[in-house]
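QA checklist item 7 of 12: single-chain prediction sanity check.
[x] sequence parsed
[x] length recorded as 475
[x] structure emitted
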Amino acid sequence: MMYTNLIIAAALLPGSFAQETVYGVYIFHRHGDRTPKSTPPANLTDLGYSQVYTRGEYYRSRYVTGDASLKVKGLNTDLVKQSQIAVTAPKDTVLQNSALGFLQGLYPPVGRRVETLRNGSQVAAPFNGYQLIPINLVSSGTGSEDNGWLQDASGCENAKISSNNYFTSKEYTDKLASTRDLYDKLVPVVNGTFAAKDVTFKNAYTIYDVINVAEIHNATIPSDSVLDSATLHQARTLADSHEYGLAYNATDNIRAMPGMQLAAEIVKFLSNTVASKGASKLGIQFGAYASFLSFFGLSNLTAASPDFYGVPDYASSMVFELFSNGAAASEFPSADDLQIRFLFHNGSAASSADPTPFALFGGNDMSIPWNRFSEKMEKFAIGTAEQWCNACGNSTGTCAGYGESGTSSSQSAPSHHNRHGISAAVGGVIGAMVTLAVLLGLGSLVILVGGMRLVSKKRLVDAGEYCQGLKERER
């Protein structure tokens, strides 16, 4: 998808940046070029690594270096200070490796250092003075790049149900029927990956993904005469339409759960920047296109440009800059004096290295007050396990501790009450007690007969994992 460059007001020209002070930045970044989803495991390619490394270098020149165009106040220039930066990615090889490549461009080696030990021997740092920045795991988006269906990585039952409703919508059924000729034409191009019966609009994105990877990497493509510019464009726009329909729906926004979680993470990091008076400076998260698309819908970026209905290209990034007008003061400004600017860069498809500002929430202003931004985001943000469990309707695993009568989420999610008056959590407790009684009886019998000894073991539970043990819903 080619994002239209807006004509930016004079206030956003580089010379005017000297009249601003940036205190914090949050970057949400897509991975670089990879192998196709249809042949898992997907892997980051050399091209993909180069793409994210180059973007890391760009953001270094924008925010980090001493002469950066928008230097973040107090951010270390050469030697990384771990307390100033927070980096996250889901448990996904492509996304984690993309984050590593980006960070190597953001904070490159600082020169070969030599450490003298007590015994007089010397040890030289490898890689010409490497710098290591930890990447923390987030639960949302796990295994994104090995899943062909957008909601496979969400774990949210209501989001899956909502996305599946797209397959019964008039929009979907009309496109399924009207595009049969196009996909019949594409069969000989992709029949090494898909059976002919599966080459339909139902698999629009994974079909396009195979073709796109081939167009980038393959010396030869079967029946490539079919792939003229008009056909490629149509396949791409159909893939965009298909994935946006699965990622966001204005009347049933629970399917936009990845964007809701992302919104909470953005607000949490930048709120900490404000609360800590600028100690927390740079937040970076790598994630899948599902989070981009659902956030585009939730924040009404589609009103700023219709291009936001499409899947962003490899190595794309959304940026949120927290700044105040005027030169830096000795005191950290009050929340009332802080502004947020949103920018987007469409990865390798962009004509310029610079990200482009866009107006959020259907407005016209390229920057908005911090307090209004956080208020708008909180309307759809999902930031706690309890909110997530209630919104998603999940009731097992980590969610077993949150009954349906608990705190509701901050957005309108479908309600699923048990018809017999027993909540899922209570029912789970009753079932667990019955099962425990049976197991204890059997265990006693085994001990009496076999002379075995019981050993107690604590069960470790990761509260940050959102019910990943659930079976994936049949599509």
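[x] summary fact logged: Residues 160-247 form one domain.
[ ] second reviewer sign-off
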